[in-house]
Specification:
Elements (H helix, E strand, L loop, with lengths): L4 E3 L3 H13 L6 H22 L12 E6 L4 E6 L6 H10 L3 H11 L19 H4 E9 L8 E5 L5 E5 L6 E8 L9 H11 L7 E3 L2 E2 L16 H12 L7 E7 L5 E7 L15 E6 L2 E4 L14 E5 L9 H5 L2 H24 L1 H21 L4 H6 L4 E2 L10 H7 L7 E5 L3 H6 L4 H6 L3 E4 L2 H10 L1 E2 L2 E5 L17 H15 L5 E4 L8 E4 L7 H10 L12 E4 L4 H12 L1 H18 L7 H15 L10
Parallel strand pairs: 2-8, 12-14, 16-17, 16-19, 20-22
Antiparallel strand pairs: 1-6, 2-3, 3-7, 4-5, 4-7, 5-6, 8-9, 10-11, 11-14, 12-13, 15-17, 18-19, 21-22
Bound molecules: adenosine-5'-diphosphate and magnesium ion.
The site of adenosine-5'-diphosphate has 16 residues, from helix 2 and helix 3.
Length: 620
């Protein structure tokens, strides 16, 4: 007989295996669940091929068998599912890194004590076998006519071997030679407990040493009153490989316009790591309890990719390719019905338990905002689900747009929002002054993306949504001490000449109280922070032209009043003050790119103030 071929693991997989072998000591039993889950997946795939007429249904019913040998210290998990060819063994078990590998390594690195329970959620469950086994052998054969059996074996540390397995029957058999300290996994009693706990919902008969362990039931197809809380939670654990209870659950059925039986869950946490891993939707699509697609594209909008669950529709054809199914009108109907119903559910939950909704929102608000920016059809209802702090809420508490509108006095015409790093920055912002003075509520939004989101919604309950920076609001002019209109206009003209290209337009403001000046983006659609974000996003492609802002001045502010006289008396000093005012306005607008020139100028001004430098040098 020829020597087995020796293969190396792809580098990330090897790294993953080293961690699995050497660092995962708690919750080791998860590997049982992961291997059973893979066996069940393989059976699901085979059942689909049979149901869609692509393979003849065989005599032997699909199922999973576990066998233990306490004396030899082995555990074998077999299934008669699709099986793997030689190429598939190479690809699936060691060559091609799933996108989840990296994310899993990162998640582990962030933990003090690596948690084995995470492994299945990242799509690398197979490797958990090495938690308990010193050697893993996978003997597999597909059902294709003339297919050959192959055996894949590894001790985890040093690549794997491949050799022909002429006696293999169609399907897969995984033999675990248990580590000395993991022999309990060869005890039938212990194993039975584990299976009952983790794999109770496997959709195929599961036998342990010849004894049937589970009862197969599709809980989504039963009526709500027949399903217990416990079953719902256990099913979620089984489905999502997640031990933390889900935040929300929606079990719903419909007959028109399309038959739906569905059970959707919102996990307690989102697994998405921006820039590292984008989650994939895992709401499985069934037709009469036959799994059609575990990750169907188009069943739900992209921004609902955090959902887990099952959708069963008897209206779906089984013999259509997945690609054609994706853009079929049936899928669009399912998508519309499911999305609408789920959003309604969120709205109801928000009304029923605001604290629980806030916790959900903290975890998932990005997805809702992505929905507003990408999904025109659901914008309006998603707008109802937004929550922000505002000048009328207590710090840390959020309000909905609906509550905001309810509080609006009769003469307030618009909903206002202000973007700032945090509440303190918002309250100190010159843009907030007119709102404080007139006791108008402003939503405080922390991220520039929120400005785009609110801009996109445009209006809520008939009230336009407006950036504070763009609000057309006026304050009563103070009776005394302010510059006259002609003086203010003259000063504005001088400032424009002095500041040149750095400003687009200079004018007197009616909305400032404590600040001498404020910058307003000269583009009517954009705010300063929106421009900053567009610029950052487009840096590679040349970016957004950096248009000079408009500068508004406060005719009642002592610095402004004094500047009007000063420009006649000490031109160079007046010019320094003008430059300084512009930089302060840019700073408040988040548009001061390099504060160092401002510092140098500040020092010159301070020297004047303390009388150290009677001479004034001009300059930017
Ligand atoms: P996931 O199940 O999330 O895809 P795993 O690491 O658990 O990730 O498994 C990797 C892949 O190996 C599976 O996607 C599947 O293609 C293959 N595989 C694992 N176990 C079996 C099995 N019993 N039968 C057929 N294929 C299997
Ligand atoms: Mg798996």
């Amino acid at each position: 007989m020829s020597q087995p071929e020796q293969h190396a693991f792809q580098a990330e997989i090897q790294q993953l295996l080293n961690i699995v072998i050497h660092s995962l000591y708690t919750d080791r039993e998860v590997f049982v669940r992961e291997l059973i889950s893979n066996a069940a997946d393989a059976c699901e795939k085979r059942r689909f091929l049979q149901a869609s007429g692509q393979t003849p249904a065989e005599e032997a019913p699909l199922g999973i068998t576990l066998t233990t040998d306490e004396a030899a210290g082995t555990l074998t998990i077999g299934d008669n599912g699709v099986g793997m060819s030689r190429e598939e063994l190479v690809q699936n078990l060691g060559t091609i890194a799933h996108s989840g590998t990296k994310a899993f390594l990162k998640a582990l690195a962030e933990q003090q004590k690596p948690d084995a329970r995470l492994i299945g959620q990242f799509g690398v469950g197979f490797y958990s076998a090495f938690i308990a086994a010193k050697r893993v052998s996978v003997i597999s054969r597909t059902h294709a006519g003339g297919a050959e059996g192959w055996q894949w074996s590894s001790e985890g540390g040093n690549g794997y071997t491949l050799e022909p397995a002429p006696d293999a029957t169609p399907g897969t058999r995984i033999v675990l030679e248990l580590k000395d300290d993991a022999k309990t996994f060869a005890e039938p009693g212990h194993l039975e407990q584990l299976i009952k706990r983790y794999s109770n919902f496997v959709a195929f008969p599961l036998d342990l040493n010849g004894k049937r362990i589970n009862t197969v039931r599709a809980i989504w197809s039963r009526s709500k009153s027949e399903v217990t809380e416990e079953e719902y939670t256990e099913f979620y654990e089984y489905l999502a490989h997640d031990q933390d209870a889900p935040r929300y659950r929606l079990h719903f059925t419909a007959d028109a316009p399309i038959a739906i039986q569905s059970l959707l869950y919102v996990p307690s946490r989102s697994l998405e790591l921006p820039g590292v891993m984008r989650q994939e939707s895992e709401v499985h699509l069934y037709c009469r309890k036959v799994l059609i697609d575990a990750r169907p594209k188009g069943l739900l909008p992209e921004w609902l990719r955090f959902l887990r669950g099952v959708v069963d529709s008897e209206d779906l054809p089984l013999n259509v390719s997945r690609e054609r199914m994706q853009d079929s009108s049936l899928m669009r109907k399912l998508n519309k019905a499911l999305t609408g119903r789920f959003l309604k559910h969120l709205e109801e939950e928000a009304g029923r338990d605001a604290a629980a909704y806030d916790a959900f929102y903290a975890e998932y608000h990005r997805f809702l905002k992505e929905g507003i920016l990408s999904d025109w059809e659901h914008q309006a209802i998603l707008g109802k689900l937004l929550r922000y702090e505002s000048s009328s809420t207590e710090p840390g508490k959020k309000t909905s747009l609906a509550e905001y509108v309810q509080r609006m006095p009769g003469d307030q015409t618009a909903i206002y929002f202000l973007q700032a790093r945090d509440r303190a920055a918002a309250e100190a912002s010159p843009y907030f002054e007119v709102f404080r003075a007139r006791k108008l509520e402003v939503l405080f939004v922390e991220e520039a993306v929120d400005e785009f989101v609110l801009d996109r919604i445009r209006e809520f309950e008939g009230k336009p949504i407006t950036a504070a920076e763009k609000a057309d609001l006026k304050l009563e002019a103070p009776a005394t001490g302010a510059l006259s209109e002609p003086d203010a206009a003259a000063l504005a003209g001088w400032l424009k000449t002095t500041l040149g290209e750095a400003v687009h337009e200079v004018r007197a403001s009616t909305r400032l109280v404590d600040s001498p000046v404020v910058a307003v983006d000269s583009d009517r659609q954009l705010t300063g922070s929106m421009r900053r974000m567009l610029k950052a996003m487009g840096r590679e492609e040349g970016g957004l032209p950096d248009a000079a802002p408009d500068l508004e001045l406060n005719p009642a502010h002592p610095v402004v009043v004094r500047l009007q006289e000063l420009r006649g008396q000490d031109g160079p000093l007046a010019e320094l003050v003008a430059q300084q005012l512009l930089d302060q306005a840019r700073l408040a607008a988040g548009r001061l790119e390099d504060p160092r020139t401002m510092l140098a100028r500040m020092n010159t001004l301070l020297s004047r103030v303390v009388g150290a430098a009677p001479e004034t040098k001009t300059g930017g």
